[in-house]
Amino acid sequence: MGFGAIVAAVTGFGGRALSRSRTDLGADRSQFTVPRATNSLAPIPDTAQPGISPYITPNADFYRIDTALEPPRLRSTDWSLRIHGMVDREIRIDLADLQRMPAIDKLVTLTCVSNEVGGDLIGNARWTGYRLADLLAMAHPHADADMVLSRSSDGFTAGTPLTAMTDGRESLLAVAMNGQPLPVEHGYPARLVVPGLYGYVSATKWVVELEVTRFDRATSYWVDRGWAEKGPIKMSSRIDTPRSGSSIRPGMVTVGGVAWAQQHGIDRVQVRVDDGPWNDAVVELPDDIDTWRLWRWNWQATSGSHALSVRAFDHNGVAQSTLTASPIPDGASGLHRISVTVR
Ligand SMILES: Nc1nc2c(c(=O)[nH]1)N[C@H]1C(S)=C(S)[C@@H](COP(=O)(O)O)O[C@H]1N2
Ligand SMILES: [Mo]
Fold this sequence. Notes:
Helices cover 11% and strands 34% of the residues. By secondary structure, the protein is mainly β. The chain has two domains: 59-225, Alpha-Beta Complex (Sulfite Oxidase, Chain A, domain 2), CATH 3.90.420.10; 236-342, Sandwich (Immunoglobulin-like). The chain has a five-stranded mixed sheet. Strands 3, 4, 7, 8 and 9 form a five-stranded antiparallel sheet that branches. Bound molecules: the ligand Nc1nc2c(c(=O)[nH]1)N[C@H]1C(S)=C(S)[C@@H](COP(=O)(O)O)O[C@H]1N2 and molybdenum atom. Residues 3, 65, 112-114, 198-200 line the site of molybdenum atom.
């Protein structure tokens, strides 16, 4: 079974009726203090364009992937994180402990491995949280450990390379999303955010445990179901406007969308009409290696049926793969191509 069936299941009527009878976290969430970040991000320019995804995805529009039929409901006072396994010192941290530690803001584009080329299982947010490197250092991981098996209160697990949590990329134990306490569906009160890795190997919501271990000793939820052990995000690009299958007028048309290459950064985006030459698009700021970039290109559209394709290049000059691959086992690849009718 793919991830699709699970996404559909959570939106069913049954799920909603059930959740209403459960713990109401409204009061708990409204009293939750979002920590003040010790860093300050550069102001985000307003690059809003009709039809193109906003740079920051509003919380209410952010995609969701859950194995549970309804999100776990954890009160912030009931939450704690246990770090154990191959460590010198097992520790347990609660929210009061976290509040004494420095928090940071970080922009990260989260992506699902089951996202098809051109799909919408991707979103960008400003996350506020605590560096996982600091938390893990407190437990002193053993030198021969290479994986962190994170576990949620609902039994989901993800296996993340230990280095991705301890190197300079600033992986987070996040407690806020776009300035708000995490929405319940996105992991309240705490979740993991690891730049550069698909969510199924890194982004554990309602996280309560980090077990330091080894890839040759432990496996995780989706890896047990046939997905790859390692899940670096593949560079990709998407056309948001015009919509595939739409009819548009001849003349100047803005073609635009998003492109991402987390941990490498998007350098260049190009658009092609039918089998014509590749044209350089304007790529918007910010140029952050861990977030998507918005792009647009002005097309003088001529009557007829046309195909539009997009491709991206990262800051190392590497081109997006043209090889068509389906999401399983380690993420889709290939170019996004849409059809439009001009008349
Ligand atoms: N507890 C828990 N955490 C989880 C999941 C899950 O099913 N349960 N799904 C993972 C997957 S596959 C992805 S892509 C991201 C999605 O995060 P979001 O729902 O906040 O967008 O969460 C990850 N964390
Ligand atoms: Mo995912």
